[in-house]
Amino acid sequence: MATKKARQDYICRVRYRNVLPPVPYAPKMITIPSLIERHVPYQSTSLVEQTPYSLTMDQSAAIPFDKALVDYLDAMESNPEEVSRPIEEVAEEDKILLTTPTDGQGNSGMYTRKPNVTWLRRSEYIAQETRGVSNRKEGVESKFAMSGATAKRRSYNTLQEQIAGVENTFKQPDINTLQHPQTKSKAKKITPLLPDMQCWENIYTIGQFSAEPADEARLQKRRLMMEDFDTYKRPRLSELDATDRGILRPMVNPHDPEDTYLVWFLPDGESTKRLVNQKQNPLEGLSEDVLTYNAVCDYEYKNDAGSSSKYMLISIHNDDMGERAVYCPIRSKMVVRKKRAQSAKFKYLDDYEKPNVLTVTYTK
């Protein structure tokens, strides 16, 4: 006789649903400032410095004071010798601490061993009394300066010696004897480097591209030009096709104000020839004819305000004031990469008019 296996199960299944109630309040969107806007250096103005602060005095208000401090100040005015007299009641075991401290550096300039004291002892595992200085590599600039041993032999006790020391700081070096401390290469000329006060207020930014910013036509010409140049004497290809003279223009999506990006423009063929010629012959300058730039692609950008490296923009001028070099600080840096294309679902967000051509005119 076949027996049917009994199936064990619950008679009634109870299922609990974990359905959360709706949010009672609408979410709040908080605008977070960028990294550059978070830290703004404080700059005082003449209006703030000349405005006197109003000091409100209330005669009925009490001013707390320390009576012991007032008594001490009164005693200093009436009998200062009595107040400043040292206390003679010192315990016998503490009199050893009243000895004059000795300096660890002797008359010869060498660091001598410090005497031991009863109330302060060094650890037993410390082998030396002085801390050793590791041999660290210094920059090449420090080798041009005066060494520490030479500075100790100089004396600046009198006013005449101090004036002579300041004047020697600005003394023009001899170009015939000036040479590099490592390569021993001789200097050819000396150019003064001064801050550029005309462009000091301008904001310069270093732009770092994640990929080659040149368009396909320029890249094709570079492949053909690579065969004509030597590997060790190859010039910068961006200077030959005016890629280094491109323009980044900021744009805002009208459908989404939070969508900000940059449009990369490069000069056309005729404008490229003029810009390359102007860079090879800077004294000729550029004419006031219009330069035409065409849009290449869109870039996303990210500000790198926390960069530890500092940069300067140095330019050389040869005008009525002579040949000179001026510098300006570069205060910011940004990293740009190509903007991703929108999917078919969000293609309508890019349905707006964008600039494709820029016209630039250089004026003197």
Automatic annotation (TrEMBL):
GO terms for cellular component: Cdc73/Paf1 complex. It comes from the Eukaryota. One of its GO terms (molecular function) is RNA polymerase II complex binding. Keywords: Nucleus. The keyword Nucleus applies. One of its GO terms (biological process) is transcription elongation by RNA polymerase II. Its main location: nucleus. It is found in: Nucleus. InterPro entries: RNA_pol_II-assoc_Paf1 (IPR007133). Belongs to the PAF1 family. This is RNA polymerase II-associated factor 1 homolog. It comes from Mucor velutinosus.
